[in-house]
Amino acid sequence: MKVRIDPERCQGHGRCYDLAPDLFGEDDEGYGLVTGDGSVPAGEEHTARLAVSNCPERAIELL
Ligand code: F3S
To answer: What are the 4Fe-4S ferredoxin-type domain coordinates in residue numbering (predicted)?
Structure first.
């Protein structure tokens, strides 16, 4: 499983990196970034889904 943020949709709400700090970070302006290549480690799938469902812009995809 991988996560991806669509930069066209992200508005910097920050819920992804608040809820799943191991999977997401932020850039200098508070927009979300995936950590590394976006791979979700074993055991973090639930957290990844939580981030997806909490992004108000629906900017996060699971691949
Ligand atoms: Fe952006 Fe959604 Fe995270 S708007 S900062 S991807 S919660």
So the answer is: 1-29
Q: Is the CB of 5 under 6 A from ligand 1?
A: yes
Tokens of 52: 């997806």
Residues 6+ apart with CB under 8 A from 51: 3, 15, 16, 19, 20, 23, 24, 60
- Measured from the CA of 15, which atom of ligand 1 is nearest? 7
Predicted structure pTM score: 0.95
Architecture of domain 3-62 in CATH?
2-Layer Sandwich (3.30)
Q: How far apart are CA 55 and CA 15, in angstroms?
A: 6
Spell out the domain ranges in the chain: 3-62
Residue 57 main-chain phi, psi, to 5 deg: -95, 0
ipTM: 0.98
